[in-house]
Amino acid sequence: MINDRIVACRRCPRLVAWREQVAREKKREFRGWDYWGRPVPSLGDFSARVLIVGLAPGAHGANRTGRLFTGDSSGRWLFRALHKAGFASQPTCEHRDDGLRLIDCYITAAIHCAPPGNKPLPSEIANCNSYLREELDSLRNLRVVIALGRIAFETYLKTRSVAPLPEFGHNRRYDLTPALIASYHPSRQNTNTGKLTERMFDAVFAQAKALLV
User: Fold this and answer.
1) Which end of the chain is more exposed for a tag (fewer CB within 10 A), N or C?
2) Residue 174 contacts by C-beta under 8 Å, 6 or more apart in sequence?
3) CB burial of residue 132 (10 Å; 0-12, 13-18, 19+)
4) CA 172 to CA 33: how far, in whole Å?
C-alpha cells in the first residue's frame, strides 16, 4: 500500500529531524497528545472523482494527529467547505478517529512531512513526488483536481508535465483532463487577512461539484 510506504519514508533528513523534534517538544496546548511525528498518509479512496492537493502537514496539526488537514485552522476551513459541498461526512476534524469520512474525494499533499516554517525545499518536493505520481496513476475515476496554494498548483502541473506553467488564479479553472481548479490555501495568512473568505472558498467546491454533473 502506498500509504504504508509514505509513513515509513525517511528520504529527507531535514524533514525527518524537524517532524521528530516537533513531536518531542510539542506545543504547550497539546502537551497531553502523543504526536504522530511521521510522514502523514493521504486520505480517501482511489475511486474518488475529486482530488485535493495541499502543501504539507502542519507541524502541530497533521504532524500531531496523523491525518492531513486535521487539528488546525486550515483543516477547519477545508472540512467545513467539503462538508457543505457534500464531500465530507462532517465539518469537524480534530483527530483521526473522530469518524470523518470523505465522500467521492481524495486528499494528498505536495510533501507528506511537516517542513520548518511551512516551506519545503525544492529537493524535498522532488523526493516526495513519486508518491503523487503513483496516486495519479491509481485515481482512475478522477474528474476534478483542486490545488490549494501556488506550491501545490505548480507541483501538480509539473507532475503532469504541463509546460509552460499557466498563471495561478483563485477559483480559476484550467482546461486539462481532469479539470484543474486553483484555490488560495486556507492558511491563517490568507484567512485572517481576508485574502480568502468563506464565500470565496465555498465557490471552489461548488464549481468542482458542478463539474461532476
Assistant:
1) C
2) 166, 180, 181, 182
3) buried
4) 39
**Residue 1 and residue 6: Cα distance in Å, rounded?**
9
Measured distance between the N- and C-terminal CA atoms of the chain, rounded to whole angstroms:
31
**What share of residues in the chain are helix, strand, coil (percent, to 5)?**
40, 10, 45
Cell representation of residue 201: 472558498
Which fold is adopted by the domain 2-211?
Uracil-DNA Glycosylase, subunit E (3.40.470)
Q: How far apart are CA 192 and CA 66, in angstroms?
A: 25
In terms of Cβ atoms closer than 10 Å to its own Cβ (0-12, 13-18, 19+), residue 147 is: buried
Cite the beta strand spans of 57-161 per DSSP E.
105-109, 144-148
- Flag residues of the chain having pLDDT under 50: none
Indicate whether this model's pTM tops 0.90. Answer: yes
Q: Tell me the CB-side half-sphere exposure of residue 72, using CA atoms within 13 A.
A: 21
Residue type, 16: V
Q: Identify any residues that bridge with 50 across adjacent strands, giving them in sequence order.
A: 105, 144
